[in-house]
Design goal:
- The chain is of the alpha/beta class.
- It folds into 2 domains: 118 residues, Response regulator (Rossmann fold, 3-Layer(aba) Sandwich); 95 residues, Orthogonal Bundle (Arc Repressor Mutant, subunit A).
- It contains 8 helices and 11 strands.
- Strand 7 and strand 8 form a beta hairpin.
- The radius of gyration is 19 Å and the shape is elongated.
C-alpha cells in the first residue's frame, strides 16, 4: 500500500503512542514514535515527517516549547494532542505554532479526520507529497519553508511559501491574482489583493538575494508565472 504520509508521534505514554502508531499504520500512514526525549525538537526534525502529533505534557520540556523550537527551522504541521482542554489552552497552542489542537480523550476517527484535514491544507490533495519541488534550478523546500538556488537559500513566511507553492503547481503558466487568492483562502490563508502585492514584492526581493530576481514574471491582466 502506498503511504499517505509520514507522521511522528511525540507522546511519553507508551500505551497511547503504540495505539496511535497501530491506528495510523492501519490507515495507510507511515508512523514513527519518539522514545528519547533528550532533544525532542532535534529528533523530530531529523525524522523529516509530514506531520507531528505532539503531546503538551512531556517529561523534560513542554510540547509548546518544543513546537516553538521546531518553528525556528521548519513549518512542518503540528497537531497538539493533550488533556489540557480549555479554550485558553487551545489558543496558547495556536499562538505557539500549532496547526490544530485535539483534546484527550478523543475518538480515533475524529483524530484521523483532523490529521487528514491538516495535511490537505498543507499539501493540497497530495497529502504526503514530496516536500521539495524544483523548477529551472529553483527549489521550494516546503518542510523547511525556504527557497534555494544552488547553495544559497532564503527563508519564507507561511504566506510567501503558499504563494510560491501555488505558482510551482503551474510551472510556466500564468496564474491570475484571483486564482492565487482563492487558492490561499482554500488553504486558510486569508489575504486581499493589496496584501498579495506586498507578499509578491517580498518574495521577489528574497529571490533576488539568492540570484533569482527574475524568476517571477508579471503580465498585466494575466497574473504571475515562474520561469
Amino acid at each position: 500500500m502506498d503511504k499517505k504520509g509520514k507522521i511522528l508521534i511525540v507522546e511519553d505514554d507508551k500505551t497511547i503512542r503504540e495505539e496511535l502508531q497501530m491506528t495510523l499504520m492501519a490507515a495507510g500512514y507511515e508512523a514513527r514514535i519518539m522514545e528519547d526525549f533528550s532533544d525532542p525538537a532535534g529528533s523530530a526534525l531529523a525524522v523529516k515527517p509530514d506531520l507531528i502529533l505532539l503531546d503538551v505534557n512531556l517529561p523534560k520540556k513542554s510540547g509548546l516549547a518544543i513546537c516553538e523550537e521546531i518553528r525556528q527551522y521548519s513549518q512542518v504541521p503540528v497537531i497538539f494532542v493533550t488533556a489540557n482542554n480549555t479554550p485558553m489552552d487551545e489558543l496558547n497552542g495556536m499562538l505557539r505554532g500549532g496547526d490544530d489542537y485535539v483534546s484527550k480523550p478523543y475518538q480515533l476517527p475524529v483524530l484521523l479526520a483532523r490529521i487528514g484535514a491538516v495535511l490537505r491544507r498543507t499539501f493540497g490533495n497530495g497529502a504526503g507529497a514530496p516536500q521539495k519541488t524544483e523548477y529551472k534550478g529553483i527549489v521550494l523546500d516546503i518542510a523547511a519553508a525556504c527557497v534555494c538556488k544552488g547553495s544559497k537559500k532564503c527563508d519564507l513566511t507561511k504566506n510567501e511559501m503558499k504563494i510560491l507553492h501555488c505558482l510551482f503547481e503551474h510551472p510556466g503558466d500564468f496564474v491570475s491574482r484571483t486564482d492565487i487568492i482563492d487558492y490561499l483562502w482554500d488553504n486558510e490563508v486569508f489575504i486581499d489583493d493589496n496584501t498579495l502585492s506586498v507578499n509578491v514584492t517580498r518574495i521577489r526581493n528574497k529571490l533576488k538575494s539568492i540570484g533569482a530576481g527574475d524568476f517571477i514574471e508579471t503580465k498585466r491582466g494575466l497574473g504571475y508565472r515562474i520561469g
